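Q: My collaborator sent me two sequences in one message, no labels, and asked for predicted structures for both. Can we handle them in order? The first one she listed is below.
A: Yes, handling them in the order given. First sequence, followed by its structure tokens:
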Amino acid sequence: MYGSDNNRYWSGKDIYIGDEVILFGKDKPVEELAAVCQTIPYEILSRISGRVRRLYVQG
């Protein structure tokens, strides 16, 4: 899911360590990412590592 083969497919850009990325949000529903990864939204949400910095936005 997070391998280098998928980063370009999902974002259309090259992603490197240290880059800021938005996995899902207002304009990128988690359901869309799940479809690309051939899984369900719950699996995407539950597999995000604790090492990933999170920014919660009220909305």
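Q: And the one she listed second?
A: Here it is, processed independently of the first:
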Amino acid sequence: MHGPPLAQMAGDPDSRRPREETNVTRDTPRPFPQLQHAAHREFDSWMDARHLEATLDKVRPFVMPPVSVEALVDLANVALMVLACDIPGDFVECGVWRGGTGFLMAEILRGAGVRDRKVWLLDSFEGMPPVEAIDGPRAIADANDPANPLSRHMSKAPLEDVQRTAMELGLAGHTEFVKGWFDQTLRATRDRIGPIAVLHVDCDWHASVRCCLDNLYDQVVEGGFVILDDYYGYDGCAIAVHEFLAERRLAHRIESVVGNWGGCDHNVAARFRKGKANWQWEYRLHLAREDIATVIPPGQPFILVDDGVFGDEIAAGRRATPFLERDGRYWGRPADDATAVHEVERARQSGQSFMVFTWPAFWWLDAYPRLQRYLVAGFRCVLQNDRVVVFDLRA
């Protein structure tokens, strides 16, 4: 989705013709556009598998099957959000196998040109520890199936092999490996690790998950994430998470990562954030501020259509005038199309240079079709994505 389909809604046949490439800011091929501050802002806030195809293809052979594409995409988006919002700390992977998800985070660091963070990859590299009754019947069955990747033999991945793969993928400079059982290495290593932005817990069994949370949670920074790969897969993982949160009296909301299985929604992983809930809204707002700062010059006034939601919170240091406006305050929605067009003209005459529709008010462009036609026919749409639609009113 790149915002409302302006040309389709315009009604004017001329507006359905392909617009010249210079009329809209277009995305150019870049690894992760969320991290770009140039005028290439036409990208969705949350990337999907199509946008991440090259990155996923690079690391997929090293992810333990069955591969959940949705879980990989979610991990990538969380890492990108951390970088875009400058949440401090390294990335930590507990449970590495052949390196796939750790390499995914390292590839994001590499593609973003980040040199002051790394991915810590912690594993025994000797296979899974013994399963216990608390891990549940499915875990016991998987651990005792010689053909299952989680069996002791199949889960072995020698450290030297994983390090060699990191070198071949060009990721050695973004990774640091720690070999050993968690109950022996985490306490000894955590001071070296320091602040953690993303803690990816992918170690399946109750004892391992609990050890990771007990030893590393306190280093997850405010705004950082704990991702629980096996929360829906194995009873022991879910029990460990809820035990830990209850004992610490922590009120973190568990968020589901949802995929699709046989045409139905299927929970593939879980996560919680150490900080504000509903962080997707905060992330989109952050990117929208960047959008506005990119296309509207400093000091230029603009009309803000936000349904009264944001106000100066989204203005990025520019001068935002609410629409409709009376005495500098939001005055509500236009009574009709004629009022909407008249108010835009009045605002232009008073010196407003741009008009910004934010995503809570995208429906205006459908509800006021004459306003939409007026803007499309008379002014350049300089940016359109899933957060903002911006018109340059200086024509």
